[in-house]
Design brief:
The protein is of the alpha/beta class and 427 residues long. Helix content is 38%, strand content 16%. It binds pyridoxal-5'-phosphate.
C-alpha cells in the first residue's frame, strides 16, 4: 500500500484471479489492458449469479424471472448513467461494443450528410472511429478531413486552426478522448466548442478514457460518447453509447428488429423512443449486470485514485523506457495529459519478434498497428509494441517489462547496449 495515497495495489490485485497466472518460471506481467482489461471476481460472480438465478429475456417476458431480468438490465443502465454523469438513464444505449456505437453514430448522423459537407476526425483514431466515417462519406458524398498530430503525439490544434479544418461545412467532429497508441488525452471540451461554434455534432470515442479516468459526459461538451465494457473490468459483449437525449430523439434507427419499434405494419413501422429505438433484438443482459458490477467496483476504488495510480505507473515506465538505448517512444514522454498506455519501437527489431520473446518471460504486451495504421504511417513505421497499464499494474511489472525489452533488443540485435542488460530486476 502506498503510504502517501492509501492506494493498495496488492489488495486490488487479489480481486483479479487471473493475475496470479504464471508463465513458466515467471509471474505474469499483464501489460495489455488497453486491449482488454482483466475482470475482478465480483464481476465474474455478478454475471454467474445472473445466469444462475435471474436469467430471462427482458421487456417481453412478464413472469417473475422476466421482471427480475428486466429490473437488473434497466438497473444496470441507471448505474452506468450515474457512472458517467448522464442526466438520465434514457441517454444510455447498450450495444455490443464501442465499434457498434461509433457505427451507429456514423450511420445515423450520416443520414444528414451530403456532398459539400465535411466530417472531421483525427489521424490518431482507432479504426473503429475511422472506417465508419469513411463509409458514411462514401455513401453520402461528404468529405472526410482530419487533425494531424505533432511529432510529440499531441493533436495539432494550431495547424487545424491555420487551415480552417473546422468550418461552416463541418457537420460532424469525431475524435478520441484518449489515444489507444500514444496514450495522449485530447482537449475534447475545446474541440467540442469549436465544433458547436459551426453547428456540428461532437462525437467522442472514450473507449480508452472511461476505464482510466473520471469522465463526466455532461462536462465533456460532447453530444455522443462511445465506450466499451471489456476495457473497464466489465464483460465482453457490451458497449455503451451515451447521447444528449434531444439529439437521440431526433436520430433515425440504426438496426431494425424486435423491441426498437412502436407499431409495425406490413408496409411501415414507427419507432420506440430512445434508448430502445437503438437496441434492436435481445440486448446484452448478463453483460449489463456485469458492467454495473464493474462500475461499482471502479467507483469503490475511485476513478480519480485509479487515474493517479496510472499516472504514477506511466511516470515510472516512461522514465525507465526513455533510458534504454535503441528505443523510440511514440507519443508524450511526460505523464501529463496521458494515460498509462505506452507504445514504442526497438531499432532493428520487429515488434512481433520482440513480443513473442517478451511473452516467453511472462510479459504480455501487444505488437502490431493496434488498429491505428494511419497513425503508424504518420510516424513513418508499420507497427510498434504497446505496454498498457491499469489499476492493478505494479512497478515490479514495469521492471519486468524493461528487463524483457532489453533482453529482446539484445537478443535480436546480437549485442549488449547497456551495462547489466538482461539482468533480472527484483520481480
Ligand atoms: C480508442 C478505441 N476505440 C475503439 C475501440 C473499439 O472497441 P471495441 O473493440 O470494444 O469495439 C478500441 C478498442 O481497442 C479503442 O482502443
Amino acid at each position: 500500500m502506498s503510504a502517501a495515497t492509501g492506494y493498495d495495489v496488492e489488495a486490488i490485485r487479489a480481486d483479479f484471479p487471473i493475475l496470479s497466472t504464471r508463465v513458466g518460471q515467471y509471474p505474469l506481467a499483464y501489460l495489455d489492458s488497453a486491449n482488454t482489461s482483466q475482470k475482478p471476481q465480483v464481476v465474474i460472480d455478478a454475471v454467474a449469479d445472473h445466469y444462475a438465478h435471474h436469467n430471462a429475456n427482458v421487456a417481453r417476458a412478464m413472469h417473475k424471472l422476466g421482471l427480475e431480468a428486466t429490473q437488473a438490465y434497466e438497473g444496470g443502465r441507471a448505474r452506468i448513467a450515474r457512472f458517467i454523469g448522464a442526466a438520465r438513464p434514457e441517454e444510455v444505449i447498450a450495444l455490443s461494443n464501442a465499434s457498434e456505437g461509433l457505427n451507429l453514430c456514423a450511420h445515423t448522423l450520416g443520414s444528414r450528410l451530403g456532398p459539400g459537407d465535411e466530417v472531421v476526425i483525427s489521424v490518431m483514431e482507432h479504426h473503429s472511429n475511422l472506417v465508419p466515417w469513411q463509409l458514411a462519406c462514401q455513401r453520402t458524398g461528404a468529405t472526410l478531413r482530419w487533425f494531424d498530430v505533432t511529432d510529440e503525439g499531441r493533436l495539432d490544434l494550431a495547424g487545424a486552426e491555420r487551415e480552417g479544418l473546422i468550418n461552416e461545412h463541418t457537420k460532424v467532429v469525431s475524435v478520441t478522448l484518449a489515444s489507444n497508441v500514444l496514450g495522449t488525452v485530447n482537449p475534447v471540451a475545446r474541440i467540442a466548442a469549436m465544433a458547436h461554434a459551426v453547428g456540428a455534432v461532437m462525437v467522442v470515442d472514450a473507449s480508452q478514457a472511461v476505464p482510466q479516468m473520471p469522465v463526466d459526459v455532461s462536462a465533456l461538451g460532447a453530444d455522443l460518447v462511445a465506450f466499451t465494457g471489456h476495457k473497464m473490468v466489465g464483460p465482453t459483449g457490451i458497449g455503451i453509447l451515451w447521447g444528449r437525449y434531444d439529439l437521440l430523439a431526433e436520430l433515425p434507427p440504426f438496426l431494425g428488429g424486435g423491441e426498437m419499434i412502436e407499431i409495425v405494419k406490413m408496409d411501415h413501422s414507427t419507432y420506440a423512443e430512445p434508448p430502445h429505438r437503438f437496441e434492436a433484438g435481445t440486448p446484452p443482459i448478463a453483460q449489463m449486470v456485469g458492467l454495473a458490477a464493474a462500475a461499482d467496483y471502479l467507483d469503490g476504488i475511485g476513478m480519480a485514485a485509479i487515474a493517479a495510480h496510472e499516472r504514477d505507473i506511466a511516470d515510472y515506465a516512461l522514465e525507465g523506457l526513455s533510458g534504454l538505448k535503441g528505443l523510440r517512444i511514440l507519443g508524450p514522454t511526460e505523464a501529463v495529459d496521458r494515460t498509462g498506455t505506452i507504445s514504442f519501437t526497438i531499432d532493428g527489431v520487429h515488434p512481433h519478434d520482440a513480443m513473442s520473446l517478451m511473452d516467453s518471460r511472462g510479459v504480455a504486451v501487444r505488437g502490431g498497428h493496434h488498429c491505428a495504421r494511419p497513425l503508424h504511417e504518420r510516424f513513418g513505421i508499420q507497427s510498434s509494441l504497446r505496454a498498457s497499464a491499469y489499476l492493478y499494474t505494479t512497478r515490479e511489472e514495469i521492471d519486468a517489462l524493461i528487463d524483457a525489452v532489453e533482453y529482446a533488443r539484445d537478443f535480436f540485435t546480437g549485442r549488449t547496449m547497456t551495462a547489466g542488460a538482461g539482468a533480472g530486476r527484483h520481480h
